[in-house]
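[Meeting: bench + compute handoff]

Bench side (C.D.) handed over the final construct sequence. Compute side (W.E.) agreed to return the predicted structure before the next meeting so the bench team could plan truncations. Sequence as handed over:
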Amino acid sequence: MTGKGGTGKSTVAAAMALALAKHHPTTLADLDRRRSALRLLGDDHRVDGAKPYKLADRLEGVALSPHAELEAFIERIVPVKAISRRMLHSRTFSYVTAALPGLEAFLMLDRLRIMAGDAALKDHRVVVDGPASGSALEFLSVAQGVKGIAPNGTLNRLAAGVHTFLTDAARFGVAITVSPEEMALREALETADTLKHRLGIKWVIAILNATSKGLFNAADLTAVTPLKHHAHLALRRNALAEYTIRAREQLKAAGLHVIELPMLFVPELKKAAAHQLAEKLAKALPHQ
């Protein structure tokens, strides 16, 4: 799950996990440093641990950290723990990781590949609350960069495996959240184009979030004109409805399957809101 900041990415990721968990065991993997998706569904005191924990029936959560994946990788290739720990805390190793800023992100991608492989064996699903769209494109491009700096050896084999995983529509896909606003729509269209044509990711959909229907006709608007604040709200509601239609048309014209979620008129998004959106998603998603 990715999308422009403010489009409801983490909320929709939590709702997607709840929706899939109605039919399959599901894991919600949170890459967001704030752990927004996990906090929406779970206990604040448990979201910083790397071990999976139960969120609901058939649903578990796990908080993933790039640095933790780097540590796990070093411990795999250097099985003597005392030596691997010394490496991780050495100044030389810090220089190496600073020179390869994409290494931690790449190892995170490999972790997701492994999780997907395990999930496939168990008819399981994994929903990843990923970075916002700009950072997500950098994140998903890392495997190509690693292949360039490591033409052979362990990292090259891992990079080839990650690339195959990302371009396999049966194992990996990206859902882009987009709200009915000009900047969010433009960024979603650019993101989808880059994912499909530069990164070769075949399964890309759009989730048009916070949609609205028009409520007021011309007579209604005329009637509320003397009430300035009410008139402003009425015009805003109609504008959202009009832009919802425009966004839907442009996303479909770009070849994207579009799932729509309604605006929730609540003062704060909490677990109940995620469950409400999950009901909508469960009806829109194919039961596979």
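W.E. noted at the follow-up: The mean pLDDT is 87. C.D. will use this when planning the next construct.
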